[in-house]
Amino acid sequence: METKEEILRIIDVLNDTYESEEAWYGPSVVEALRDVTPKMAEVRLSSNTHSIAEIVYHMTTWRIFAVRKIQGDAEFDIKTLDKDWKKFALVDEFEWEAIQMELSLSQEELISELEKIESDSFLEEPVPGRDYSYYTLIHGVIQHDVYHAGQIGLIKKAVKGMRLEEDDYSTFDDRSDLDNGTDYY
């Protein structure tokens, strides 16, 4: 009889990284996103950085990639920059809610797919169209979350440090004004 103990542990870590209030490394993704307003979500600290909205979209994209690969879709890929790092010219309340909801739904779908797996041996199988295993892919999603939760925290801290009123974020529409050599973190 095969077991799925490792898959259950991975599910726990995925859930902790995504929404736990007690992740040992710091804020989970959900905690990092708490109190991010639509205006904060669209701000870029410089012309060569991503906004929080873009980061969340990117995280969602890679969850969807993992889900499709777990489902056995060898053809699915993220081949264009727009599919990976979509640009958001304006993030209003509706758009920000939608971006966050898509992330939440992709998390639920990823957990659901992992729960369907019947044996830990699945983790050793190669991901269709890639040269790594499902174990590497799924742990990559966890590591990806930790990395981007940290980025979101730094961006939030920098934006709050600007001490701008909510309406003043539009001052940085071209985003280049923020790239003045000032160390915000």
UniProtKB/TrEMBL annotation:
Coiled coil segments of this chain: none
InterPro entries, A to Z: DinB-like, DinB/YfiT-like
Domain of life from the UniProt record: Bacteria
Pfam families in alphabetical order: DinB_2 (PF12867)
All residue ranges annotated as the DinB-like domain in the record: 31-152
Signal peptide per UniProt: none
Protein name as catalogued: DinB family protein
Classification of source organism: Bacteria, Pseudomonadati, Bacteroidota, Cytophagia, Cytophagales
